[in-house]
Amino acid sequence: MALFKKKTKPEEPMDLAAVMKKFDQESNVRVWEGKPRIAVNCVLAAFSLFCLYVTLFASWLEELRLTTFVAWIVFLGFLVFPARKSHHRKNHIPWYDILAMVLGTGAFLYFSFNAVSIIQQGTRFAPYQIVIGIIGILTLAEVCRRSVGLPILIVAGCFLAYALIAGLSNPTLWGKLNYIVRYLFYSKEGILSTPINVCSKFIVVFIIFGAFLERTGIADFFISISNAAVGWMSGGPAKVAVVVSAMEGMVSGSSVANTVGSGSVTIPLMKKTGYKPEFAAAAEASASTGGQIMPPIMGAAAFLMADYVQLPYSQIVLKAILPAVLYFAGIFIAVHLEARKSGLRGLRKDELPKLRPLLKQVYLLLPLVLLIYLVSSSTRSIQYAAAIAIVAAIFVSIFNKDHRPTPMRLLEALAAGGQGTITVAAACGIAGIIAGTITMTGLANMMINGIVALAGNQVFIALFLTMLCCIVLGMGVPTTANYCIMAATCAPILIRMGVPAVAAHFFVFYFGIVADLTPPVALAAYAGAAIAQANPMKTALTSTKLAIAAFIVPYVFALNPAMLLIDTTVGQVILICATSLIGIFGVSAALEGYLKTHMAWYERIACCAGGLMLIFPGVTTDVIGVAMVALVFFLQFAAVKKTGQLPASAE
What we know:
Layout: H1 16-23, H2 34-56, H3 62-80, H4 95-113, H5 115-120, H6 127-147, H7 151-167, H8 173-184, H9 194-214, H10 218-230, H11 236-248, H12 255-273, H13 277-289, H14 300-308, H15 313-342, H16 355-360, H17 366-377, H18 382-397, H19 407-441, H20 443-455, H21 459-473, H22 479-496, H23 501-514, H24 523-532, H25 536-546, H26 548-559, H27 570-592, H28 601-613, H29 619-643
Helix pairs in contact: 1-12, 1-24, 2-3, 2-9, 2-19, 3-4, 3-6, 3-19, 4-6, 6-8, 6-19, 7-19, 9-14, 9-18, 9-19, 10-11, 11-12, 11-13, 11-15, 12-13, 12-24, 13-24, 13-25, 14-15, 14-22, 15-26, 15-27, 17-18, 19-22, 20-21, 20-22, 21-22, 21-23, 22-23, 23-26, 24-25, 26-27, 27-28, 27-29, 28-29
C-alpha cells in the first residue's frame, strides 16, 4: 500500500487501519504527509521502475543485480518502517535510522561496486571486508525485524548460534565468524541465494501487478459478483466470504490483508444474518488464508517452489488448482452446514446487486485473463507476462470512472508495489541466511537422517512429523521464509521416503500457510476476530475446524500424487477428487455435528472415520470410507423422515 492514511468509513465496525497495524507488521509504517509523502512515494516508485527495468531488460552480473536489489531494500526499509510501533511522529526519521540506512546500504553497494574483484579473490578476505559483511547482515536483520517481526530472527539467531558454538570445526571464534560472513554475505549460498534471487526476478513484478490491479476496482467487483452468485443461498454472506476470498487470492497472497480487505464487508454481513461473531471471523480468516494457494497468483513461496523443483511456474499453477478447489469446497461445505443447523437465511432480493451493471464491468477481469493465458501458454516469460498484465490493468482502469489512471494514482500504485516488496525481500534474505546456515553446518543431513530413522518405513509418520515442524515454525514466521526452511530441511526427508519432489514441496507449502490459522499465533484469525469483535482464541479454534480440508488435502496428494497430476490419467484424477471431496464432506459434517439433522455421537465418529479412510489411497479404504459416510447420510435421512423433523433452516 502507498504511504497515505486511509479514511475510515462511518459504517465500518472499527478502524481497519488499526487492525492491520496490530496484526500485519507490514502496515506499521512511518507517517508521511504533504510533500514528504510525495517524495517518499517517488522514491518507492523509482524502486519499482528499477526492478521492472532490471528484471525485463538488463543483463547484469548476478552478484551485481542481487546486491543492488538488497541495497534498495535496506535503504527503503529504514525509510518506511520505524524502529517501534509507537514511533509515529509525522514526517520524521531519527538520526540513528539515517545512520543505519547509510551503513547498511553502503555495505551492499560496496559488494555491488566491487563484485568482480570480490568473486576473484576467493577466500582471502581482509578484516575490514568481514566488518562490512557483518554490518550488511545486521542491518538487513533489523529491516526484517521492523517489517516482518521478531520470530523469524529468533529462528535465524538459533541457527547462527549453533554454527558458532558447535556447527563449525574451525577452532577460533574469529575463524568461525570469518567463515560465516564469507558464506552468508559474500557467496550465493546465504543472503544472495535462491529466495532473494527469485524475489528480485519474479515476485517483485507480481507484487507491482497486484498493486495496480487493486486500483482498477476489481476487489469491489469480486464482492459484488460473489453476492450475486451465492448471496441468496442459506447463510449467503458466509458463502460470499468464501467465494470473494478465493477470487481475491488470485491477486493477493497475504492472509491478513485478505481477511481485513474482504472481511470489512463480509463479517458484518454474516453477523447481521445470524452467524456468531467467532464463526463469522473464522469463516473469513480460513477462506482468506487459502488465497495463498489459489492460482494464478499464489503466495510468493510458489515462485520459490518453481525454482526449487525446477518446473515452470505454469506447471506449479496447474498442479495447484485441484487442491485449492478442494480447500475452498471444504470451507464452503462447513459454512453451509452451519447455516442449515442454525437456520440462517440468505440475503433478500433487494439486498443483492443487480446483474446487468456487473456484466458491464466484466472487462475488469481482462488483466487476469491475459495473465493466465500468457503464463499457461508459455508465450512469454513470467516477468513479461506480469508486465503485460500491468499495462492491461492500466488500460481497463481507463473505462472505470471511479478508478481512472491519473499521474498521482500511477505513482501510488508503483509506490505500493515498492513498499510491498520490502517485507517479502527482507524475509527472503533472512530465509537465505537460515537455509545457508543449515547447509553450512550439515544440520540438514542430520535432521533428515534423524527423522527418517524415527519414521522407519512409515511415510505417514514422516508426513505427520513434517506437518508439526511446519506449523510450529510457521507461528509468526512468514509463509515464504517458512517454506524456504522446510524446503531445505523437511522436503528432502519426504523425498527420501518416496514422496515425489513436487508433492513433498506442496506438502510443506500448505502446512506453512495453515500456521496463519492455528493457535497460538493465528494472525489471520486474530485479525478477523478484531473486525468481528469476537474472542480471538475461539476464532482461531473455529477457523482451524473450518479449514480442516487444509489438513486433509496435503496428505491426499502426498500419498496419492494423482491430485497433482503426476503420472496419472483423467479417470484417476476424477476418482481421487471425488473420494477426497466425500472425505472432506464427512469430516466437516462430523466436526459440525450436523448433516440433515443433529448427529448422534456414534454418527459423528462413523462419519469422521469414513472421511479419514478416504485419505489413504486404495480401493479397500475408498469403499469402506464411502460406505461409512453413506450410511450416516442414510441414517440422518431416515431420522428426519421418521420424526417428520424439517431441517433447521426450514423450521
